[in-house]
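Escalation from tier 1.

The customer reports that the assembly of two entities below gives different structure tokens on two consecutive runs. Tier 1 could not reproduce it. I'm attaching the input and our single run for tier 2 to review.
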Amino acid sequence: MAAVTSVLDVGALKKDFPLLTRGDGDPPLVYLDSAASAQHPQAVLDAMDVYYATTHANVHRGVYAIAEEATRQLEAARLRLGRFIGAPHPQREIVFTKNATEAINLVAFAWGRQNLGAGDVVVLSEVEHHANLVPWLMLQSELGFAIRYLPLGGDFHLDLSGIDRLVDGAKLVGVTAVSNVLGTVVDLDPIVTAAHAAGALVLVDGAQLAPHRRVDVGGSGIDFFALTGHKMLGPTGIGALWGRAELLDAMPPFLGGGEMVRDVRLDGFTPNELPWKFEAGTPPIAEAIGLGAAVDYLETVGIDAVAAHETALVDYALERLTAAYDEIRIFGPAPDPVRRSGVISFAFGDVHPHDVAQVLDQYGICVRAGHHCAKPLMRVLGVSATTRASLYLYNDETDIDALVDGLATVRKLFS
Amino acid sequence: MNELEDLYREIILDHYRSPRNRGELPVPPAHRVEGFNPLCGDEIVIFLDVRDGAVHDLRITGRGCSISQSSASMMSAAVKGRPVGEVRDLVRSFKSMMAIEELPGDDGEAPEGSDRAPVDPGTLGELGALQGVVKFPVRIKCATLAWNALVQGLDEIEEGVDDA
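Tier 1 run:
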């Protein structure tokens, strides 16, 4: 087996992550669940600690120094995140949310309520995470529009052969950029072209893309992009929606409260300007600053290097797993430098994924077992659950080798 | 590895590989009841034939992890042929071993639990092998899935729920 030639010095990178270099006699973690949540470099933890220890105050209110500094740091994080994903107007177009789920809900309930009704059509895909299904199903029961689905093809890519017919009459196409189950990197260009030709907007669930690939929302032609901080080395509780300024401007607010208003009278209110119009209440300030530090970390390492490293490592993993185990069945596309991410879902004979994960846990190997919040996709695949290993910049061959070795115990126990 | 061997005892793996009382019974006279764990997709279907106050026969189908399926198989072997009252006692003992105390009134009966002695797994026979599951809290739901379905089935039969 050829060794992975990586562009990253993973041994050095791992030292930046306290949880991956834990001591105290615990076995080293083999962390293969970054598609669920990534680990944090010390720099992210420090950024939040320093904020709390030196300049915590509420933002956009106080005139005193630490309040102004807190506001400055929050807005600086917005700017850095916006630039990281290629937002043309980051200071107006990046709306901080709790996570990608809330970002999608924002589009559904602010844009959707204003623009959808009976007779309208929304197009989603069969591989969507529940986060990009349930908000639309909720809104559908309220407004009565139709939902159509881009199907999964036999090669684990979306089957776009019928897309012109599917998007005909649609007002919005909502699709994930990367399947959190299959590792499929969706070819967004033909979807954007077809959607815009039909007069539909394009919402992209970028939760699994932004941590791993260069994103250029401005140049991509898409209209909305949702991401979450904790999958890209940032803390939990912070995510973002990017939207074209003119679309965000035309939308009504989502949640109401302080911060999102310019004026409030007893008979009405005037919304604030972008992006604060969509940020009701005190935002997660420390978390936004932590996300800003995570973006800095990814830029220092180089997001293209991260992508290249993961591509090399997923090729190695697929080759080792399939060579070692006849009984393994991979649910995902063939190796490909562009259209394959570092997410590996599999069935191991007929051993239930919970048993696989339980055995691997005894070796400190963290994999996910379950439906991965994509139950409709599980039905398409004809399974109730899969085991999923997912890679990030701090994984290397030793993690894959540990996974392959751990599966030998699974085989021994259950065959 | 010791914890793992505690969880996956040989008797558990034996029931997983060769489940007892696997299959279906005609409904009626049997009563059909389902148990489902939406979190992991485990499912159990029990066909329960209760006659003269006893579990005359039962068959089980379903799919899921080794713990849910072996627990169902061991349960079927333990309750077949036994009076319903004894079966309910066994369920309580089993759930107690799984560190689950029934809340007073949970099962519609008078509270009796607080001074009940802890269950000695030795008295549960083969079922004692499932005690290792307690150390893995997320798997307790797997182990109790079939038992909860069984109780539901017994309740439905007593309440005269019609299968048709």
